[in-house]
From TrEMBL:
Residues 93-251 form the Helicase ATP-binding domain. Pfam families: DEAD (PF00270), DSHCT (PF08148), Helicase_C (PF00271), MTR4-like_stalk (PF21408), MTR4_beta-barrel (PF13234). One of its GO terms (molecular function) is hydrolase activity. Residues 356-546 form the Helicase C-terminal domain. Residues 294-338 are annotated as: Disordered. Keywords: ATP-binding, Cytoplasm, Helicase, Hydrolase, Nucleotide-binding, RNA-binding. This is Antiviral helicase. PROSITE patterns: HELICASE_ATP_BIND_1, HELICASE_CTER. It comes from Antrodiella citrinella. Belongs to the helicase family. SKI2 subfamily.
Length: 1029
């Protein structure tokens, strides 16, 4: 049974925050008072109390123990289920009933949605609200339909960029960006929210949008309980610990690695299937070998002409190798690779039908290849006449939303033809309505074969009997790589329908050669990718935080997941500061009349000289002259936590030591024959706080200070940093007999020579030192020698050394200095200045000041207030564009065409035909972009690669806004229809943001123009209502 943490002091909450500036007409970003929305949670838990000593925010719940008393603990469930809940679901339900926050990590199809549904039902029961957020709009649409079926239509609403349905509902579905915007604007509805459900939390790893998750979690008010739903990740506790500490809430981590339907993994080679991982996750090496043999037999047959190859039956057609051909071996390789067999999917489909493994999802990491693969199944018909009729009715019903010309689009005609035979395609290049038709028909079991990209793996539960990977390499936007274990798990998880299939079947197609066994093992059985912070500071975030004043930017950075490791140590470091300050107060105060005037000066001057000595030795040791300075026989004086002015003879350089981590340290070490006393000889190895053990810095060493008994000597390995002084004396010693020989006679001989030297030094005031000035002629070295000489001139005036108790007083001063230095270092470590993103923040502040978005006091100016409205585009460039009144010279359809450069991010090989007036607009935007870019370069701020301006759809958007039919639009570009629709729908959001910016600056002309632009683009198939509504 899990441990509960309910008996925590009430004052363990976030500090009350100051009111916002009323001038900005914003509600409080983070309400100061926490409303207890759920009075029922105040009741005591029966038999599940625990006293908490240590403040751990994340608590891992043991789901391996059955929860036998669940119905006693939760007698009146807010939502009834027609099946018995799994243990992890019961634990989650129980903790939600108790008013806790939870992190639920489970595989696809395990039943995480139960947790979301229960939270929504509980909010309804408590007369509060629940917000469900998802990373993508398509997933929001699907969830809207599902929740409407589970609950009443009136209790579920949806808010996305272009849709608002039932915004007063007690369950609101929205993208994370919409919730972020609400939090910055202090929307009233946030006060009524009891739960926020974050689905697909592993999306926090997304480089571009992951930061939004962190922003929202940080800014959520205290009274809201958080429900995090994720695929299985290795560091769920670490992430939950961060959320808990940030929100001052206990987070219960409920993870299950159990799959409702176990998976079996196969290789498809030589037109047969070979099992390589069984349902118990054991890798079967024999299956892998058999697949390799089958592939070799197939290739031998092809070479002899026994099987049709990729170039067709006669081997005459076909020319260049396909993009899907293996690239192993690199260009210029003499080895010839086959194209993927054009009959591959015909044979594979035959195999799957024979083994009764339909429906199947075939994952392909290219939109183009999805279409090509579907095109190879021209003769396949997988539907009965009844199913064909159902498909026809469903398509007709969906198409009735479109105008007649849009129903005749080539993509829709092709989709009709494929679906009528039970074959579907699903990728980002499809029109949204086409994707939704495919999803709905697949969910009904009417699509038997689905060629899909990996986006199909994210989202609602749409399982198949079998999943096929056409390749295991993908392009991630930067380079080709093997798919990661987490990605494989997410897609493979679509295999196996709960309650229908005893096991799910996953197949990897081996085209020309078998993937490496280690690659397969890592991908199938490896650890999924950790949740990693993608937190970064955006100008919009900085300006919004400066404007609402409820949360300092430094606080936002401090609370981010990227600072989790250092912030976790914060309480310990604060405790150490307090303890050190207490110790400092208790130290005896120096009250000696002789020492007080200049003992501190002696300390600081000596410390500075020793620093110079270390610098000089480091420079010399890295230079060929070191063989002359630290030559065999050179007499040196040693001082560190072991040696206290011990005199010694350098024998030779010792091997470089390896640190505890195995890394070879850079500090050089030397074998030294040193005169020692018994304390030094028996000293233990170095350990602990070396700074605390180090002797007080004092200069120069006097002959009278030297430690050592002529009868006690030892050969020690000494780091360069322990050599306090290099004398001008070089003795003739028999190095090889001492190291490694350890010949006593040779050592005694060297000690005798040292003894004579010490007798010569005894009457002197100073030990004769090496003349450093002539050692190296480099400017840097000579500067350090000069600095040391100037410091040494300050020493003769010091009088404190005449005090009879000087040594004791100097030790007191040393203890005080060490403590103060430790406290200063600890305070620096926990200060804002130690935050990793502070330099980036300061650079961005400089950019905003130079561009006049904020003043020298970081007060947000008019430009900054405009930039706060811009979320979907580059806020700096678009703000400059608005305030320079560049858009005034253009008609609405021209404005929206120019704005497309901020939204379109893909490549196009077709150069758009841009009218002269729009070319002027493009040049004006580029000029502003270059000017802003120069300011950023000047302040060392890197550009964001996913915010590059691309003008590839200017013509398309211009003609669409002028009323051109969509069929003709598709002929203007090689960009996929789905991408065109996505760009235009996002442009509607950008237009709305520019319209709101126009309201801020009081530009009524621009306001009207943007409203008109929105009307012009919001038509026909681009804005056809979702089939899920």
């Amino acid at each position: 049974m899990s441990m509960d943490i309910r008996d925590v002091d009430d004052d363990a909450t976030v500090d009350n925050l100051p009111d916002n500036n009323a001038d900005f007409e914003l509600d409080h970003l983070l309400p100061a008072n926490t409303t207890n929305l759920n009075s029922s949670v105040t009741r005591k838990r029966v038999g599940r109390k625990a006293n908490i000593q240590k403040r751990d925010w994340a608590h891992v719940v043991d789901v391996n123990k059955p929860m036998t008393k669940f119905h006693e603990l939760v007698p009146d469930m807010a939502h009834k289920y027609p099946f018995e809940l799994d243990t992890f679901q019961k634990e989650a339900v129980y903790h939600l009933e108790m008013g806790d926050s939870v992190f639920v990590a489970a595989h696809t199809s395990a039943g995480k949605t139960v947790v979301a549904e229960y939270a929504i039902a509980l909010a309804g029961k408590h007369m509060t609200r629940a917000i469900y957020t998802s990373p993508i709009k398509a997933l929001s649409n699907q969830k809207y339909r599902d929740f409407k079926q589970t609950f009443s239509s009136s209790s579920v609403g949806i808010l996305t960029g272009d849709v608002q349905i039932n915004p007063e509902a007690n369950c609101l579905i929205m993208t994370t960006e919409i919730l972020r915007s609400m939090l910055y604007k202090g929307a009233d509805l946030i006060r009524d929210v009891e739960f926020v459900i974050f689905d697909e939390v592993h999306y926090v790893n997304d480089a571009e949008r992951g930061v939004v998750w962190e922003e929202v979690i940080i800014m959520l008010p205290d009274h809201i309980n958080i429900i995090l739903l994720s695929a299985t990740v290795p560091n769920s506790k670490e992430f939950a610990e961060w959320v808990g500490r940030t929100k001052k809430k206990d987070i219960y981590v409920i993870s299950t690695a159990k799959r409702p339907v176990p998976l079996e993994h196969y290789l498809y080679a030589g037109r047969d299937m070979y099992k390589i991982v069984d349902a118990n996750r054991n890798f079967l090496s024999q299956g892998y070998k058999d697949a390799g043999e089958a592939l070799r037999r197939k290739q031998d047959k092809e070479a002899r002409g026994g099987w049709p190859t990729a170039s067709g039956r006669g081997g005459q057609r076909g020319a260049a190798p396909a993009r899907g051909a293996s690239s192993r071996g690199g260009s210029g390789s003499a080895r010839t690779f086959h194209q993927p067999d054009k009959n591959l999917y015909v044979h594979l489909l035959g195999n799957l039908r024979k083994k009764n493994l339909l429906p199947v999802v075939i994952f392909t990491f290219s939109k183009k290849r999805c279409e090509e693969n579907a095109g190879t199944l021209t003769n396949a018909d997988l539907c009965t006449s009844v199913e064909k009729s159902e498909i026809h009715v469903a398509i007709e019903k969906a198409m009735s939303r479109l105008k007649e010309p849009d129903r005749r689009l080539p993509q829709i005609r092709r989709m009709r033809e494929l679906l009528s035979r039970g074959i579907g395609v699903h990728h980002g290049g499809l029109l949204p309505i086409v994707k939704e038709v495919v999803e709905l028909l697949f969910a009904r079991g009417l699509v038997k074969v689905l060629f899909a990209t990996e986006t199909f793996a994210m989202g609602v539960n749409m399982p198949a009997k079998c999943v096929v990977f056409s390749h295991i390499r993908k392009h991630d936007g930067r380079s080709f790589r093997e798919i990661l274990p987490g990605e494989y798990t997410q897609m493979a998880g679509r295999a196996g329908r709960r309650g229908l299939d005893p096991t799910g079947t996953v197949i990897i197609v081996a085209n020309d050669e078998l993937p490496e066994q280690t690659t397969l093992h890592t991908m199938m059985l490896g650890t999924p990718t950790k949740l990693q912070s993608q937190f970064r500071l955006t100008y919009n975030m900085i300006l919004n935080l400066l404007r609402v004043e409820a949360l300092r930017v430094e606080e936002m950075i401090k609370r981010s997941f990227s600072e989790n490791a250092s912030q976790r140590l914060l309480p310990d470091q604060q405790k150490k500061v307090a303890e050190s300050e207490t110790t400092l107060q208790k130290l005896p105060r120096l009250s000696c009349d002789i020492c007080s005037p200049d003992i501190s000066q002696l300390y600081e001057t000596s410390k500075a000289i020793i620093t110079c000595n270390n610098k000089m030795l480091k420079m010399v040791s890295d230079h060929p002259s070191s063989s002359r300075v630290l030559c065999p026989g050179r007499v040196v004086v040693l001082r560190d936590e072991h040696f206290r002015w011990n005199v010694g003879v350098v024998l030779k350089q010792a091997p470089v030591a390896a640190s505890a981590s195995g890394v070879r340290e850079k500090i050089k070490r030397y074998d030294v024959l040193a005169l020692v006393d018994l304390a030094t000889k028996n000293a233990p190895a170095r350990s602990g706080d070396l700074q605390a053990l180090a002797p007080p810095p004092i200069w120069p060493p006097r002959p009278a200070n030297l430690v050592g008994d002529l009868t006690e000597y030892d050969v020690k390995i000494v780091p360069l940093t322990s050599i306090a002084m290099v004398t001008d004396a070089v003795l003739k010693v028999e190095v090889e007999l001492i190291v490694p020989g350890r010949r006593i006679s040779a050592m005694k001989n060297a000690v005798r020579l040292l003894s004579g030297l010490l007798i010569n030094w005894a009457p002197l005031e100073d030990i004769p030192e090496l003349g450093w000035k002539s050692v190296m002629r480099t400017l840097e070295f000579q500067e350090v020698v000069g600095e040391r000489t100037e410091l040494a001139l300050l020493l003769p005036s010091v009088t404190c050394t005449s005090c009879p108790d000087f040594d004791d007083h100097y030790a007191i001063l040393h203890a005080e200095k060490i403590l103060k230095e430790n406290i200063a270092n600890l305070k620096l470590a926990i200060s804002d200045q130690n935050l990793e993103l502070i330099p980036d923040y300061e650079q961005k502040i400089e950019v905003l000041q130079e561009l006049k978005f904020i003043d020298e006091n970081s007060t947000v100016q008019l430009k900054g207030r405009v930039a706060c409205e811009i979320n979907s585009a580059s806020e700096l460039i678009l703000t400059e564009l608005i305030l320079e009144n560049t858009l005034a010279a253009y008609e609405p359809e021209e404005v929206v065409a120019l704005l497309s450069c901020f939204v379109f991010q893909e490549k196009t090989d077709v150069e758009p035909v841009i009218p002269p007036k729009l070319q002027e607009g493009r040049d004006a935007i580029m000029a502003i972009s270059e000017r802003v870019g120069r300011v950023q370069v000047r302040h060392k701020v890197p550009g964001e690669e996913f915010r590059a301006l691309k003008f590839g759809l200017v013509e398309v958007v211009y003609e669409w806004a002028k009323g051109m039919p969509f069929e003709q639009i598709t002929e203007l570009t090689d960009v996929a229809e789905g991408t065109v629709v996505r760009v235009i729908t996002r442009l509607d959001e950008t237009c709305r943001e520019v319209r709101d910016a126009a309201r801020v600056i009081g530009d009524t002309e621009l306001f009207k123009k943007m409203e008109e632009a929105q009307i012009k683009i919001k038509r026909d198939i681009v804005f056809a209502a979702s089939l899920y509504f």
